[in-house]
């Protein structure tokens, strides 16, 4: 390689590096979503990574996971373990119908200044921090050596009266997966009427590559029109293209998805509005994430 | 290939008697597959009305006798199309429908009496450590016959 080519290559490499890092994707990956009978377990991996579903970055804390049986009673997380790149746990699927497994993180995050010094609001980014895409900062992550740790307050109430540049957002980040024993149950998709929620028309457990998937999204219980939803299949290592789709819901809040390949898909919807419950917050960030299994016809 | 007839199951026989003499029979061939680890496949046949409506399971061959922690029903979901089209709502074992897995060979199964109309008979096979295949044969009830063949996990499927 001559010098000129080397420089071009270096420039290309440099620009690739300088493009903003894609938000890491948070995912829960069940070993299967479809079971015959009620004598089985599913084992679920939870991780945060760019590529799906390669656990190569950070585990999800299994203590945040909750389980609901089809009848709405709470199920159990068993055999949880947090590994270097992923966590893993089992769920006993002992009742017929669709089980809901996942987590909801709510919280306040933001910053303000006092005498020119920046303070952060939030529980140090854990259990209630985290961005819509599922950022999960570890201790001292991304902080240049020698730089002082930012100062934190846990709640909006602790923001002093003389604070300036208050930027505060509320988050409700949901990440659920669905596992069905025998026939699926539409009643498992309970609506709370708060934040961003998922109401499938084609039920998970019935998704097939040659049939369109239809899912309704709700914000505060009402159809979320024009919502942007990313739909990304896993296993891109074995293809040329990522095959990611960025789709929008219609006026009825319904998303229509065509599946390019059979497989496990990551689906993520995010939106912001100003319907905050905390008076000092200026923005509300809502997200919903799931993983859907789409079988070959 | 040896021709075998299904061992008669009481309710199957009863169904046969209830149907007029012209009742159709489906013939399904389970092919011999030369692999180091062979397990007899799970095979299911069902009728789907072309106009829409519920699928009617005609027969399902699975490991009926295996119980315990991993009962034979565990792998019924591997018959993934049938499972989605109605298998998951069916109570098994079902008289005249459930049967044990079959060795390679050709089997005759009487079709149940269904209202006249256009149907597709679907036969799906899934084999442990093996493949899965779905064969579709459109038929008209009454009088219609038809045939199709699988390439891997199923041989000829014909209706007379």
From TrEMBL, chain A:
Task: Report any Pfam family annotated for this entry.
Answer: DUF4198
* Protein name (database record): Putative GH25 family protein
Q: Which UniProt keywords apply?
A: Signal
Signal sequence residues: 1-23
Automatic annotation (TrEMBL), chain B:
State the species of origin: Novosphingobium fluoreni
Instruction: Tell me where the signal peptide lies.
Output: 1-23
What Pfam families would the database entry show? DUF2271 (PF10029)
Per its record, how is this protein called by name?
DUF2271 domain-containing protein
Keywords, ordered alphabetically: Signal
């Amino acid at each position: 390689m001559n010098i000129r080519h080397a420089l071009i290559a270096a420039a290309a490499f440099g620009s690739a590096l300088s493009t903003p890092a894609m938000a890491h994707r948070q995912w829960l990956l069940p070993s299967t979503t479809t079971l015959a009978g009620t004598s089985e377990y599913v084992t679920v991996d939870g991780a945060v990574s760019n590529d799906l579903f390669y656990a190569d970055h950070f585990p999800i804390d299994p203590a945040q996971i909750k389980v609901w049986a089809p009848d709405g009673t709470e199920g159990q997380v068993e055999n949880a373990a947090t590994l270097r790149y992923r966590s893993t746990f089992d769920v006993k699927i002992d009742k017929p119908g669709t089980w809901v497994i996942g987590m909801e993180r709510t919280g306040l995050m933001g910053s303000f200044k006092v005498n020119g010094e920046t303070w952060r609001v939030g529980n140090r980014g854990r259990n209630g921090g985290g961005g819509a895409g599922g950022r999960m900062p570890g201790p001292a992550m991304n902080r240049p050596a020698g730089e002082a740790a930012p100062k934190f307050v846990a709640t909006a109430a602790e923001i002093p009266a003389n604070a300036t540049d208050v930027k505060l957002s509320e988050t409700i980040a949901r990440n659920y997966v669905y596992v069905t024993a025998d026939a699926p149950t539409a009643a498992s998709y309970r609506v709370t009427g708060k934040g961003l929620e998922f109401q499938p028309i084609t039920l998970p457990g019935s998704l097939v590559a040659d049939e369109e998937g239809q899912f309704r999204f709700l914000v505060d219980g009402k159809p979320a029109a024009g919502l942007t939803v990313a739909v990304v299949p896993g296993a891109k290592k074995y293809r040329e293209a990522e095959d990611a789709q960025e789709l929008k819901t219609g006026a009825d809040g319904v998303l229509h998805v065509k599946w390019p390949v059979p497989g496990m898909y990551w689906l993520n919807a995010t939106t912001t509005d100003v319907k905050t419950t905390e008076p000092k917050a200026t923005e509300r960030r809502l997200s919903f994430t799931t993983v859907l299994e789409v079988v070959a016809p | 290939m040896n021709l075998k007839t299904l061992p008669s199951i009481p309710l199957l026989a009863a169904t046969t008697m209830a149907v007029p003499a012209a009742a159709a029979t489906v013939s399904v061939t389970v092919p011999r597959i030369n692999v180091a680890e062979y397990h007899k496949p799970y095979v299911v046949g069902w009728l789907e009305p072309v106009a829409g409506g519920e699928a009617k399971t005609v027969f399902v061959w699975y490991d009926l006798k295996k119980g315990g922690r991993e009962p034979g029903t565990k792998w019924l979901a591997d018959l993934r199309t049938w499972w989605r089209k109605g298998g998951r709502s069916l109570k098994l074992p079902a008289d005249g429908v459930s049967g044990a897995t079959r060795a390679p060979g050709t089997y005759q199964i009487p079709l149940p009496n269904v209202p006249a109309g256009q149907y597709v008979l679907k036969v799906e096979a899934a084999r442990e450590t093996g493949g899965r295949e779905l064969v579709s044969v459109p038929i008209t009830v009454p009088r219609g016959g038809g045939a199709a063949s699988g390439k891997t996990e199923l041989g000829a499927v014909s209706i007379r």
